[in-house]
Amino acid sequence: MTTRVAVIGATGTMGQLASRLVRDAPDFELVAELDSRSDPGAMLGADVAIDLTSPAVSQRLVDFAVDNGLRVLVGTSGWSRDRIAALERRVEALPETAVVIVPNFSIGSVLGTAVSALVARFFDSIEIVEAHHAGKIDSPSGTSVRTAELIGMARGGIGPVAAPHTDQRARGQQVSSVPIHSLRLEGVLARQEVIFGGRGETLTIRHDTVSASSYEHGIMLALRALPGASGVVVGLDALLDLGLGGHPAAAR
Prior knowledge:
Helices cover 29% and strands 27% of the residues. By secondary structure, it is an alpha/beta fold. The strands form two sheets. A six-stranded parallel beta sheet has the order 2-1-3-4-5-11, with helices on both faces. A five-stranded mixed beta sheet has the order 7-8-6-9-10. 41% of the residues are buried. GO terms for molecular function: 4-hydroxy-tetrahydrodipicolinate reductase.
């Protein structure tokens, strides 16, 4: 059975990549390519939609897709906890739909985030430095926010990380008590460092994206998981068995 796909944000770098992958896959059919100014009704011939637009328009377009019975893969940054909570309420009322939100489609990045959450219980000093190309319009990145949130969850009853002088602007933006420092530079595609400090030692978990081809496997994995997903699923890690306990959402 062929799944019909609409790509929203098809004129951007990620949108062009997603469109090419869908065209080349025998189990998918590309039926619509939209940009953020297109009539959203153009996606209505599809079974699923991929949102790769911008934070300013993503929520409106995802809401439209969900309200019209489409399943949606979201690769756009800017989905805060409040936005996700509102989407969960919307999807709960429409059980035939589902949304998978992926802050980063790179398998290496997902593994780096998972390992960081595992390590977070053993260090009280934790900070994140993320770097992206100069054209990225949001900061901190969705990946760094997701990493910080998972670190906060992993620490559970341990308490917040030790982050002195947070009243100073140069100390970064705190997410789940973890300071995040964002760089936007020419010559960089994407990089994240999670730095752990302990007595007499530091540990750095770093991931570098050197080519957009690193996103290809994750896009297709998430797209193929979408027809079997339910509710709102956040993170590519939820679709993978990372061997850290539990089972991937796609297998449930």
